[in-house]
Amino acid sequence: MVGPSPLLSSSAGSATPTQKSFSAATTMNSRASFERDNLQPPNPANGTRNLSSSAVSFGPRGSSLNPSIGPGSFSSELRSQMSSRAGASSRADLYTNLEKLDEDDDAVMAEESLNHLREALKREEKIKEGSENMLEALNNKKAKQSKEQRNRVEAELSQSNQRIKDLRQKIYDTQHVKAAPTTPTRALADGFFPNNTAGSNTGVRSPPGASRSGAGSDFDDAPEVSPSYALAETLQALEVEGMTPEYYVSRANSLVELFKKHPTLKYDLVWSIFGLRMQVMLLSESREVVAAGYRMIRYAISDVSSLKKIRSLNTDYLVILSLIKERKADVEREQALKFVRAFLDVKDGVHEVSRAVVRTIAAVAEQGDDRLMSICIETLAEILVRDPPLLISSGGLAVLSEALSEGLYKSPESLAGAFLFLLDHPQRRKYLRAGYELEVLFTAFTDSLLANETLLKQNSAAISSALRSWPGLMNLSMFDLRAIRSLISSLMLPTPMIKETVLDIIYNLLRIKSPGWASSFLAGRRLTTYGRVATLKSTAAKGVGATYVDEAGDEQNFVEHYTALLLAIFIRAGLLPALLEVTKDTETPMLKRKATLLIGETLKLASRLLPPSWSSDIQLLPDLFSAATRFETEDHYLASQVVYQISSVSRTLYRSSPSIAPGTLFASNATDSAQDDQPKGGAQVNLDDAGFRQLLIDSAVLSSSNSAKWNWDTIFRLIDGPLTNGKRLEEALKASKFIKRIISFYRPFKYKFSELKNNRSNQKYVRVGCALMSTLLQSPEGLKYLADSKLLRQIAECLAQCDPTSGLTAQYPMFSPDRLLDTLAMGYFPMLGVLSSDTKGLQMLDRWRMFNMMYHIVDRQQRPDLIKLLLSHFDYNLQGHPRLLLSKSLTAGTKDIRIHATNVLRKYACGPRPGTVTHGVADSKWAIQLLVTQLYDPEVEVCATVVKILEKACNNKSYLEYVVECRPSLDHLGEIGAPLLLRFLSTSIGYHYLDGLDYISNEMDDWFLGRNDSYVSVVEASLARAFAPDSKDKDDAANRMSILDDGDMEPEPHVPPHFYRELTRTKEGCDLLRQKRHFDEFANTIRDYGMQYDDSELITKVKGCLWAVGNVGSMELGAEFLESTDVVQHVVEIAQNHEVMSLRGTAFFVLGLISRSIHGLEIMSELGWDSNTSAMGNSLGFCIPTDLGNFLSLEPWKHESIARVWLPETQRTMAQIEVRSSELIESEKNSTSRRILELVVDLGNTVLFRKTMGELLLLRQKKAIGFRQVGLFRKVMVLLEQHHYRLNVRRAVVECFDKAVLRCIVFEEEGEEISEEAGGRSRGASKSSVQGHSQQRHARHSSRTMSEGMSSLGARRINVRDIKKEAQSDSDEDDEDEDEEGSEELSSGDEQRTERQRSVSDPGETR
């Protein structure tokens, strides 16, 4: 999809490994890991069994689980609490003796610890920031009045800094300490059977199959044991009956470890044996054993065929019954859900997920307080993307819509992504209702009674995500922008919380970056009081000038193009009138100011992005001015006030932003910016004597030696103004102690400047220090004073402390890592950078041997932080030691140092430095030469960084020609170097250079035959990243002070270069394109197949042709290709009428590309599309239709109802043939069973629910014979599959049936009825086989072989079948006769069962 890609995100982060001891010691890690997949085998309650050190105990069946789990989390950790009889010591052993099941246990624990530490670090940094702001505010008050409060704030700031330091150290330790191996080295026997030791303290004699795995057996020689033999031994051990649950869990763990160690082993499984073992485990009475069975069978999944074999074991029934259990069985429910999710990881595995299972998952997702709710919602969303008919027929769509509207899921944007995926294509769109599924997000904004802050924030994120995608934008623009109009109209509601959230959404969608003075303005301060706003113009220009350095001015910004469309839609929906209404609100001044600022930003954005036909009318604000001119009304005063505020904000925005129109050059405005700053500086320099002395007095430096009492703003004005005059500086040096005291303040070993905390409020001291260095370098008097002062000598001594060869050491070096991070000791490096910008400053640094020390530091590579500081702050415009240090770091440093040094070259290779006089490419030759050399770096990351920098530098034609002259070889880089080679095509020199290498013809054929289609996925991924909202982490990082100068780091370009775009930059390339006739082929493909949507590969082909046509048409030389065909008309038709929304978006961006050329703009204007132009008449490419209705023309579609959705038989568990409830009830002959079915149907009626449930429970108490019938159970399951029931209703219905019924279904032992006592004895036998209560039976079984175990299991199955046949009752009799005959058959069946049970206990006797 082009543009914002509506994908269902699935996070798959790789955990950082760490030691368990650290995770256990971290106090933040109080919650259990929810990604852990471990089963803890239980200890018996009597404590007689000697287990390994990693085993734990399981309590009885009724014990409860109480994991400390947060809402919306999903855990695969299986554990159980001890019974009350085990005591406190046993409960302690439960959590201290955890046995590992998955290899990523430690990694997940470490990742959770890191997440907690990072969250704590963010909180501490916010506290620190607040303390700094408070301290800055207190500094403006009188010292006596705020002394006590300042002391408290400083104490809190100090504590916060210490906590931040400790947290960073913990994070560092967690990331770098190597974790212990997750699976310790041990014998294979111990690995498979860790709890089965030779010494028997167990109280239960081990069978031969288990004893083989003990110590001292032939299993000790681990490397010689084959995996197949180990698998057979483990399965034989699982066959043993009468063991404790921990025995089976440990063997299941061993089998899982075997599957993970030998993944191909799962393909050799004999499912007749392995499946039987799994069925027995899944029918166990122990929740932990059942969970282990789910986990074991999940790891045995290999492909779709294995899924079919697993489903043939009747696992659907087992999964359904596990999911509907109560919360105390969360350990089992969780593994059952993970088992279902494993189906989705297999290709086409979703077609093996049954509707009954999905209905059960939907029932769990409806429970707002269920721990598995969030993961169930996420599972439903994933099924919606993979198989929409399955989810629709299972009733899961209503659950997802409810989760969106009510905020049940904490990440609604991912759910919205699933809906957006369906809305993109007409074949998927039919399952949703037009204008409904996404509009539920707006309910929180239009209903002020139900609004709450959490829900508003969640839904605002989902709305922003939807409006950043083409399916969401088109769907929400239906019905004359109904949804967007409702959002904007909510600004009229009297709820401030809703208003503020809507304003934030608009700020976010329009990508408005508020200026630095916005927070002060919103707080209520006047526009004239926040400092020198006029000087912000040049500062902003320096920051963004590089964006428009491109000489050709042809770099298209698709994000701004989409923003222009959004702005036009908001304006059409009535944004400005709604904002004007908010400005009239006098109850909330903050919202009023925020709306005023948004009006100013909107008008500014409209003038830059929208065509004149759009922006000219809205700039006038006719409604506001008409209200202001009605002098006879009271609204006149309010409207006049709003006009004044908007005017003030607009003026301030203009003064605080660069006056650079898109498409113009930075250099054209550099002179104007310098002229804007010049009068102010001149006025400061030319002060008279009285004014100069008054400034000296106002600075308070002469009156006090305490730097805390100095006025640093006045000091900065003095240093940056009058003292730049040599006479004034000489006067300050000789006639006063002004310079002496300031220099003394900056001396490192005075511990004044060097011990200040590194925070935002203290950065003024660094600025003053840099200005002082610059001022002293401008006059001979200043140079002499600086050379004689102790400042540089002491800085050199601090560097010598870090030089291993100097011989100077210190217990606490001034430039230690902690001090550089926490104090202003890092401020000395910007001062050294100022000195390196002047030849005399370089001489001073060389005088004190600083460069020698720096060479040693770079050579030893022991202090990468110090090396990065030096490289970041040096000025490299002059030839000398700084360039040599940089070159040395580029070649001899570590990979991180080389990457950092390469990024330092970015600002010297991509264009002239702001504030410097440029003489052309000569100033950047040295940087380009170093970068070309870096292309041969052995690390791919370094080469990729170099390619990006050189690609940006090639925007300048002279730089591009010089790069070509260097003749770099890029064959070894492959795809990484392709963008740079494409840049070479844009000039004739580069064209001939590449033509001589036979690159052009080969690359052109490659693009025509396949690369043009693959470019679609590349550009869509790039656009998806560009449209992604800014993360909170980036915002938090922007608020923190960095010790490195990263201000010049530029983001990656929005879109990768296109071959045909670069080819048509030159006349030679156009001739080659005309000769190959590729453009005609692209135009024919668009004309013939542009409107089709059935074939996904054909859609990709059309998208590739569209991008090729757009890139060719964006060049002036390529415009003749557009005129020779009518391809533009077909592109417009695709943009306005195509059924696939992503293809519409591609066509929209392509039309923007075409409008960049003069001929293309003329063609677009004839077709009803218009674009804004620069002052020079160049098109900016932000082309939008004059009539938005034609573009936003998505017609409502016919909804596919649930009744018409067809599912294959593989997705229907019980209802192989769709039947109605009435037909199902009529098919039942027995009156009691028929009544049970009627009651189950009535449970879906909320009016009859209480009465129906009471009658159903009454039948259960009377032990109705139907609850022991397999046929009736199947029919009830059909009803539960076809209809919607709540989770508690499903649980109540299933619990009415005898548990032996499920056993018969799983083992496919069909029968009409199971006697009550037979079922009870079956349950008792099952329980005794799992809990190990029958020692005599266990002793007999211990001497059997694996084949005898199989025969005994077969005998047991025959026994159950015989029991059912002899326990049948005649269902045709009336109820009383049924009860009498049933009691007789129960007794006779019990007697016959006793005889057959002997054959099961000892099958050898039957032979």
TrEMBL record:
Protein name: Cytosolic regulator Pianissimo
Chain intervals with Basic and acidic residues compositional bias: 145-155, 1359-1368, 1390-1407
Bias type Low complexity, positions: 1-15, 205-217
Alphabetized InterPro entries for the sequence: ARM-type_fold, HR1_rho-bd, HR1_rpt_sf, Pianissimo_fam, Pianissimo_N, Rictor_IV, RICTOR_M, RICTOR_V
Region feature (Disordered): 1-92, 124-161, 181-221, 1315-1407
Biased composition (Polar residues): 16-32, 45-56, 63-87, 194-204
Alphabetized PANTHER family for the sequence: CYTOSOLIC REGULATOR PIANISSIMO, RAPAMYCIN-INSENSITIVE COMPANION OF MTOR
Transmembrane spans: none
Family: Belongs to the RICTOR family.
Example GO BP: TORC2 signaling
Domain REM-1: 112-181
Annotated Rapamycin-insensitive companion of mTOR domain residues: 1099-1171
Highest taxon in the source lineage: Eukaryota
